Amino acid sequence: METAITNFRWESQRARGVVFDATNEHGTGEFLVGMESLADLVKGHQMKESDYLDAFESNAHEISEAAGRYLAARAVPRGQLTVIQTEDLPSLR
């Protein structure tokens, strides 16, 4: 199942991390990958905003798969951020 990521951006108002939209045949949702999960993906410390965006881009495939699983399970509340947790990312289990 292919999940497309669009409109990713740094977010610091509602939460801290990278917010993005994801779409596949099951629907569309708005997701968040938090700072801690992004830092864990790249084993980073004392990262700045651009480092988090780079970590997101370099791990976009794994992140899109996690978002796709949420969409397939219909576990994406309309109008709310769905948080991609560390346990949702296989490389961090």
Summarize, please.
With 93 residues, the chain is an alpha+beta fold. The chain is 33% helix and 30% strand.
Characterization of the model:
- This protein is of the alpha+beta class and 93 residues long.
- The chain has 3 helices and 4 strands; from the N terminus they run E-E-E-H-H-H-E.
- It has helices at 35-42, 49-58, 60-72; strands spanning 4-11, 17-24, 27-34, 81-84.
- A 4-stranded mixed β-sheet has the order 1-2-3-4.
- Strand 2 (17-24) and strand 3 (27-34) form a beta hairpin.
List keywords for this structure.
93 residues; alpha+beta; four-stranded mixed β-sheet; 3 helices; 4 strands; 30% strand; globular
H/E element order: EEEHHHE
How many DSSP-defined strands?
4
Strand content: 25-35%
Shape: globular
- Major sheet summary line: 4 strands, mixed
Work out the radius of gyration: 12 Å
Number of H/I helices: 3
Distance between the termini: 21 Å
What is the residue-mean pLDDT, rounded to a whole number? 92
Widest beta sheet: strand line-up:
1-2-3-4
Catalogue the unreliable spans: none
**Secondary-structure content class:** alpha+beta
Helix content: 25-40%
Provide the fold topology.
Layout: E1 4-11, E2 17-24, E3 27-34, H1 35-42, H2 49-58, H3 60-72, E4 81-84
Parallel strand pairs: 3-4
Antiparallel strand pairs: 1-2, 2-3
